[in-house]
Structures are given as C-alpha cells and as structure tokens.
Amino acid sequence: MTVPGGDGGDGRASAERPGPRTVLLVEDSGMVRDLAREILVMGGYRVLEAGSAERALVVLSGHDGPIDALVTDLQMPGMGGRELADRLRAERPGLSVVFISGFTEAAARVSGALGPGESFLEKPFSPMALIRRVREATGEQ
Q1: Domain ranges of the chain
Q2: Closest CA to 121 of 81, 77, 87
C-alpha cells in the first residue's frame, strides 16, 4: 500500500514534512488499531498506541517527546475519547485531535460527543481518508 506523502520506500522524507510527527492512537478494537497504526506508519508518522484511554495516559506518562495529534475512538469502555481528549488538551493546549467512530458524524454532533469544528472520521475509513484527516488536523498540507 502506498500512501502519498510518505517516504515512498526510498528512505527520503517528503518535502512537505519537516520530519516525522508523533500520533497517539487510542482504539479499543485491536483490528482497527492495527490497521490504523499501519496506515499512519506508512504515512510517515511515529505512532504510540493504546487499547484504552486509561492505557493512553500510562503510555503518555512514559513519553517525553511531543505529541502532534491524538487519533481516538469516541466510544470506548471506561473513559471515552471525548474525556481523554479534554484531559490531554488541558495538559497539552493546542493538541490536534481526530475522533473516529462507527457512529455517523451527524449522530456524534447531535449527541454532543463532537463539538463544532472538531475533526471526525467515520469507520470504516480508507487509508487516504485517515492520512488526510490527520494532516488537516495538524496543519500539514
């Protein structure tokens, strides 16, 4: 699978990207998380991952570097993606967040889980849709 904007397999970084960015991926479904991780890595991102919001907090406590974006499922057992994003934004103002969900965007907005202007991607998603949404959220072109 080739993802435009990645290194193309030749080891050279894309001219569009100043260097690898780090994404925290939080998804309770192992299959979805594995696929999203593969897509993001092929897109040139460093990926930290967790199967729950609580685990994501542990992963972050051991990470000293920046986090450029959070990609998180909205609905997860225990703490959901909305609460996780709010907690991380309190600690890291300006953190870019992409919410993913099996719900439609309209349903997520009506329920109040998704605020105005927040980035959302409905499952199932294509590799390019995920890369595009993360790039938009982080201000990459």
Answers
A1: 22-138
A2: 81
Q: Which CATH class is domain 22-138?
A: alpha beta
What's the chain's average pLDDT? 86
Residues 6+ apart with CB under 8 A from 58: 50
CA distance 84 to 127: 24
H or E stretch covering 46: strand 46-50
pLDDT tens for 105-141 read 888 877 778 877 789 999 999 999 999 999 999 998 6
Instruction: Supply φ then ψ for residue 115, to 5 degrees.
Output: -85, 170
**Which pTM value belongs to this model?**
0.84
